[in-house]
Design goal:
The complex is a heterodimer. By secondary structure, chain A is mostly beta strands. Chain A has strands spanning about 5-15, 20-25, 30-40, 45-50, 60-65, 70-80, 85, 95-100, 110-115, 120-130, 135-140, 150-155. Chain A has a single domain (about 5-155), classed as Jelly Rolls (Sandwich). In chain A, a hairpin with an 8-residue loop joins strand 8 and strand 9. Chain B contains no helices and 13 strands. Chain B has strands at about 5-10, 20, 30-40, 45-50, 60-65, 70-75, 80-85, 95-100, 110-120, 125-135, 145, 155-165, 170-174. Classes of the chains: A mainly beta, B mainly beta. Strand 2 (about 20-25) of chain A pairs antiparallel with strand 13 of chain B.
């Protein structure tokens, strides 16, 4: 990985459990965004997803591979309403690092590369089929919630 | 810019470890970039260990790897691994890794994310991503990279950066 510049944009440490965190008013100043998440979940070993600009259409496609300490597995999903970025296993210290490429470009779909470390080790590539610049981004879990103390930090990467 | 170089170490000759001490406590995350070569005279690679605060306990990991012909996943209940190409391999090659440690001063267990690549003219290749955990609440004040066999060769280089979270006053989080 080449040396990157991490410009701090926003961060939050949850004071109570929530199922959704939204970053809005994201300026088109940078080339990429990096989201670093760390913490655990309240119950249910949920999955974490990204949604851009509030788009709930079937515009999210992703492929992932994971290792469960015994085997390597890969799968793909298309036409989803959110983009998968990793697991938030209950009772474990989970780490997710997601990089959103060319988020401010208006001539291409947006690609996300994510690494998730929990009970599994997971690498995901995703595509949001939309050419709009990303101005807001929501992170949510499909069940349960991000526990209190969960940290989210968003950075801009200079071109 | 919040990504700040703390220190780069390049070995002038073989060494049994590479250590960073007195890591500043005013950052949020640590990023480590490594270029490592092991002194083992055969081809292949040797493992290298990540030891926060010199720890040899409470370290676990799960790796997902591909060699060009097979893919698999392995657990480790005692260490966090990455790799260093052996000295008998193609000249002038090093294994490269990115190690990311989130919330390194926080009083909870530390997530350690490792990505590694080793390539030897297509005859020998390894790409691995590893989920590491140091189950200790102490802040990380030092970091040691240790080979599991022999030494690191001269020319091996490790750079340590800190990344500090903050706000730009524009982006709203809710």
């Amino acid at each position: 990985m080449p040396t990157q510049t991490y410009i701090p944009l926003a961060n939050i440490t949850l004071s109570s459990a929530v199922g959704n965190v939204t970053f809005s008013s994201i300026p088109a100043t940078y080339r990429d965004l990096v989201l670093v998440m760390n913490g655990t979940s309240s119950s249910g070993n949920p999955f974490a997803f990204l949604r851009f600009n509030g788009d709930s259409g079937s515009n999210y496609n992703y492929a992932f591979m994971y290792g469960d300490s015994a085997s390597a597995v890969s799968s793909t999903f298309s036409s989803q309403t959110t983009g998968f970025i990793g697991n938030i296993d209950t009772g474990l210290r989970n780490n997710v690092i997601a990089q959103i490429m060319d988020y401010s470009a208006t001539d291409r779909h947006k690609t996300t590369l994510a690494r998730s470390d929990a009970g599994l080790v997971i690498a995901t590539s995703g595509r949001w089929a939309n050419t709009s610049a990303v101005t807001s981004m929501s992170v949510n879990v499909n069940t349960g919630s991000f526990s209190a103390g969960f940290t989210f930090a968003l950075y801009g990467i200079v071109s | 810019m919040t990504m700040t170089l703390i220190q780069t170490k390049t070995l002038a000759s073989q060494a049994a470890s590479i250590e960073f001490t007195s890591i500043p406590q005013d950052g949020t995350d640590l990023l480590v970039l490594t270029a490592l070569r092991n002194s083992t005279p055969s081809t292949g690679w040797a493992d290298a260990l990540v030891r926060p605060n010199g720890a040899t306990t409470n370290l676990t990991s799960i790796a997902l790897y591909g060699t060009g012909s097979t893919a698999g996943s392995l657990p480790n209940s005692t260490d966090i691994y990455h790799q260093a190409v052996n000295g008998g391999s193609t000249s002038n090659t090093f294994s490269n890794s990115t190690i990311y440690i989130t919330n390194y001063t926080a009083s909870n267990a530390k997530s350690i994310t490792v990505d590694t690549v080793t390539e030897q003219n297509t005859t020998l290749a390894l790409a691995a991503i590893t989920r590491g955990l140091w189950n200790n609440t102490a802040a990380i004040t030092s970091l040691t990279i240790v080979p599991t066999a022999n030494n690191f060769e001269g020319g091996s280089t490790i750079s340590l950066y800190k990344i500090t979270k903050g706000t730009d006053g524009i982006v709203v989080v809710s």
